[in-house]
Write a structure and sequence with these properties.
Blueprint lengths: L8 H52 L4 H94 L1
Helix pairs in contact: 1-2
């Protein structure tokens, strides 16, 4: 007769815990990635504003050479920061993809173990049903024998 519990339950529990940890890590990483994307968007917007201001000042001829160089240096620093932020986002994309793959693999493992647990429970139910049916058959045979031969014969057969 099979044991009444799922023997791989500790493994399933560990895998479920690992899956939850990975999902939590993925959520954190996605949040950080979104923050980094927001920073990139802000940098790009600032760059566009700087270009507009610089172009307007050039057209009007309002800027002195020194101010023009400061604006150009500022825009150049922004461009460097935008490039750096794009690299950061690319790295986050790589990390998110890798973590999603790990989550997917962990989920597959949990599903396999859950299916095994369901099958073990179904097998256990079948075993119990067979044992119950055997018990009922034995009881019916005993009752039939008693009715057919009387209680006295059963007592004599037992001695």
């Amino acid at each position: 007769m099979a044991t009444p519990h799922f023997t791989l339950q500790p493994v399933l529990s560990v895998k479920e815990s690992l899956l939850e940890e990975l999902r939590f890590e993925l959520a954190k990483l996605l949040h950080i990635q979104a923050d980094a994307a927001t920073v990139l968007t802000a940098l790009q917007a600032e760059r566009q504003r700087g270009d507009v201001v610089l172009a307007g000042a050039r057209q009007r001829g309002v800027l002195r050479l020194e101010e023009l160089r400061r604006y150009e240096a500022y825009i150049e620093r922004l461009e460097i920061e935008i490039t750096r932020q794009r690299r950061v986002l690319a790295e986050f994309d790589r990390q998110v993809d890798a973590l999603r793959e790990r989550v997917s693999d962990a989920l597959k493992e949990v599903k396999v173990l859950a299916r095994l647990k369901e099958r073990a429970a179904a097998a256990r139910q079948r075993e119990l049903a067979v044992a119950d049916a055997k018990f009922n058959d034995d009881l019916a045979i005993s009752q039939y024998y008693r009715r057919r031969h009387g209680d006295a014969t059963v007592e004599q057969a037992g001695t």
